[in-house]
Amino acid sequence: MSYRVVINPYSSSGRLIPGEERQIVIDGNEHTILVTNLKPSMEYSFTVVAVYADMIGDLATVNGKTSALPRVINFRVIEKGLFSLKVAWTLPLGPLVGYKIYIPRINRPGLAYEQNIKGDVSFHLIDNLEEDEVYTISIYAVYPEGPSDPVSTTGRTLKLTAVKKLLLENITTDTIQARWLPVKGASGYRLTWGSSEGDLQNVNLGEAYQFYMIRGLQAGTEYTVTINPIFGNIEGPVVSGKIMTLATSSVHILRASSITTSSAVIMWNAVQGATGYRLAWGPTPEFMGSDRPRQVALNSSTTSHQLKNLVSNTEYVLSFYVVFGSVVGPGMTATVKTSPLNHVSNFRVTTYTNTSVSVVWGATVGATEYKITWSPTSGRSGTQSQYVDRSTLSYHIGHLNPGTHYTISINAVYRNSEGPAVSLSQKTASPDSEQVQSVKELKIIETGSNSLKLAWKKMSGITGYRISWALLRGGPERTRVVPADATLHVLGGLQESSTYTVRVSTMVGSRQGMPVVISAQTRSKQKSSVTAKPVVISPVTQVTKTAPAFMSWTDTARRTSSQSRTTLAPPTTATTIGKVTATTSPTTTSAAARRLSAPQAMQDGPVCSRAKADIVFLVDESWSIGQNNFNKIRDFVFRIVSYFPKIGPAGTQLQIKHHLREIVFAHI
Q1: Where are the domains of the chain?
Q2: Are 268 and 254 in contact (CB under 8 A)?
Q3: Nearest Cα to Cα of residue 532 among 631, 652, 662, 449
Q4: Which residues are bridge partners to 6 per DSSP?
Q5: Cβ atoms of residues 343 and 421 within 8 Å
Q6: Is 644 helix (H, G, I), strand (E, B) or coil?
Q7: Three-state DSSP state, 635
Q8: 206, 201, 226: which is closest to 216 by C-alpha?
Q9: In terms of Cα–Cα distance, which of 66, 62, 40 is closest to 49?
């Protein structure tokens, strides 16, 4: 016994395909069979009949349809060109003979572009297409069993376009940077430039270029720059622009100002076309190691920069560069030296007792605080010190030993650095000095160009007077002892136009009373004087930290004046004391009050001896005025004070107020 299997294919219309019938005979013991070599996506009928030795059994028929071959997957356009499209797909897992790609011809209806491709390729470039056209591209895989169903995608070729947004920037005297947006599909670019007086030059650039630095140009010359994209052998439209190179690309001015111990302001002139600046600084070889080199990048709108955290008394070399985009222009160098750490000026003792010493000093520009140190000269006990704020210009040292010599020093502190020390020696009064009464009614009754005349009240029970004097700004102290019956004394051999500190103490034998201190300034030899103009002030009790004031004065030798004005609170009052008028006003001072008649030369003898007034000096406390202007203000204040022989509640009361607003002092 055996089985006969008859295989018949059918067309898509369901009709039997003649001549395609196949028969397979299998042993009677088999109950299954694998039919191969069928065509994909085709319907078949399978008829099985049992064959015996002497007869044929009944027929059994079943129908089936083979599956379709796998189609190409992930078929897409990956690159567009002016006359080409590049397609790609994913390779199948099974065995493959190849692929076939075809495109209908737009200009030749009914015809198609066809291309056979190997089975191991996953992309293909279709060329010789038309510009700016849409194409439908089809592909099918060819298997040993036959072709798969086709898969299609669409793509549009590029249009011949020009470069967009040609920018000409970062212009210097000899360079121009051209920048543009890339053109899709371009294989490169042609950049051309030239001036009206020179030959044209060009360069061919690859597709990856988006900017190019044009070099070797002439300063102050107008150039025309053009660019066009290249698509293989075809050049795209041209885009052009005009730009003029700079006449100069370096700074002409580089200087330093406002130099302090730790900072300096660097200024320069603006450079047209610059995108920024670069400033570098570091110690010169002579000061190498004192500080580290540093640099900073600044924007084009900046024309000054403050260098901070510098080392005092150090010379720095400055290197300044103009930046044009990514190009650094020519540099310029200069040097600047920071100020040394100043020592404190006018350090002196004002009063002392048997257990204390009071010292004062002048303000030091740039100091952030002061350090006062004291210890017995003999070294029998330890050294003590105290830090005070920069606004403090006096200090009272207490809890000292009577009759002991002390060495007192002061340092100006600049942030973390200390300036040089200034020292003096002072002996506290002996325990019995308090039993000796002090001199009374000490005053200056006459000032000369080289002399000062002192007067005091005669006192009983004393054996003499000890007079000591020295320059306020520093210098050796001179001492003289006069008899007990003296009530006047002339200090001679003094410097003209100089302020002196005078100390007078009574003496009983070897004992000495507490000294009384007074300051006065000698006259100038010139026939000139300082005559007070109207001074706008307020009573001492009404002045605050920010109290404004108007001050003006005239130096008869220069015939010039300077004024400053601010506002005081109402009401308006006026008090005339000798030649000095004090006025308070809610807003301004009248023009008549600001004008002053021709100054009169001062006569020899006491000045303002009968004057009794409250006077306030408004002084600029900002560091920016500098040491020179500070000295002028200080000397002016002391000169005015010296004209009033009696200071205190019974005479002239004085007060100094500080301010931070700008008030201009000139010719003082």
Answers
A1: 2-65, 73-156, 164-244, 254-337, 348-427, 436-521, 530-659
A2: yes
A3: 652
A4: 23, 47
A5: yes
A6: coil
A7: helix
A8: 201
A9: 62
What are 401-404's contacts with CB under 8 Å, separation 24+? Answer: 401/355, 401/376, 401/428, 402/354, 402/355, 402/428, 402/429, 402/430, 402/431, 403/354, 403/427, 403/428, 403/429, 403/430, 403/431, 404/376, 404/378, 404/428
| Amino acid at the residue 169 | E
Instruction: Give the model confidence (pLDDT) of 163-221 as tens digits.
Output: 988 999 878 788 889 999 998 888 899 999 999 887 889 999 999 999 999 988 888 88
- Asked if 584 and 569 count as a contact pair (C-beta separation under 8 A), the reply is yes
Return the closest-CA partner of residue 455 out of 447, 463, 281, 494.
447
Residue 256's nearest CA partner among 334, 367, 341 is 334
Q: Is the peptide bond before 539 cis (omega within 30 degrees of 0)?
A: no
Query: Taking the chain, what is the end-to-end CA distance rounded to the nearest angstrom?
Result: 143
DSSP reduced 3-state for 517: strand
Q: Which amino acid is at 15?
A: R
Tokens of 587: 């807003």
- Do the beta carbons of residue 325 and residue 167 sit within 8 Å? no
What is the H or E stretch that residue 593 is in?
helix 591-594
Structure tokens at 580: 């000095």
Which fold is adopted by the domain 254-337?
Answer: Immunoglobulin-like (2.60.40)
CATH number assigned to the domain with residue range 348-427, chosen from the 4 options 2.60.40.10, 3.20.20.70, 3.40.50.700, 2.60.40.1930: 2.60.40.10
- Residue reference for tokens 């499209």: 85
State the burial class of residue 381 (Cβ atoms within 10 Å of its Cβ: 0-12, 13-18, 19+): exposed
Query: Is residue 379 predicted with pLDDT exceeding 60?
Result: yes
Topology of domain 2-65, per CATH? Immunoglobulin-like (2.60.40)
- Give the whole-angstrom CA distance, residue 185 versus residue 230: 9
Position 566 confidence tier, pLDDT thresholds 50, 70, 90: very low
Q: What is the DSSP string of 279-298?
A: EEEEE-GGGTTSS--EEEEE
- Residue where the block lists tokens 């008829």: 47
Q: Is CATH 3.30.565.10 what the domain over 164-244 is classified as, yes or no?
A: no
pLDDT, position 42: 87
The pTM of this model reads: 0.38
**CATH number of this structure's domain 436-521:** 2.60.40.10
State the DSSP H helix or E strand holding residue 168, giving kind and residue range, or none if neither: strand 164-169
pLDDT classification of 91: cutoffs 50, 70, 90: confident
At 77, list the tokens: 């356009």
Strand partners, 322: 277
Q: Taking Cα atoms as reference points, which of 536, 555, 560, 562 lies closest to residue 617?
A: 536
Distance of CA 6 to the CA centre of its chain: 96
Contact criterion met (CB below 8 Å) for 577 and 653: no
For residue 388, give the 3-state DSSP assignment.
strand
Phi first, then psi, for residue 641 (nearest 5°) are: -60, -35
Distances (CA, A) of 578 to 338, 530, 531, 659: 48, 14, 12, 28
pLDDT 10s digits, 275-319? 889 999 999 988 888 899 999 999 988 999 999 989 888 999 999
> Which residues are 79's β-sheet partners?
86
**CATH homologous superfamily, domain 73-156:** Immunoglobulins (2.60.40.10)
Q: Are 57 and 48 in contact (CB under 8 A)?
A: no
User: And the tokens for 386?
Assistant: 């105290």
Considering all CA atoms of the chain, what is the largest pairwise distance in Å, rounded to the nearest integer?
Answer: 181
Decide whether 73-156 matches 254-337 in CATH topology.
yes
Whether the per-residue pLDDT at 590 is higher than 80: the answer is no
- If residue 473 lies in a helix (H) or strand (E), which one and from where to where? none
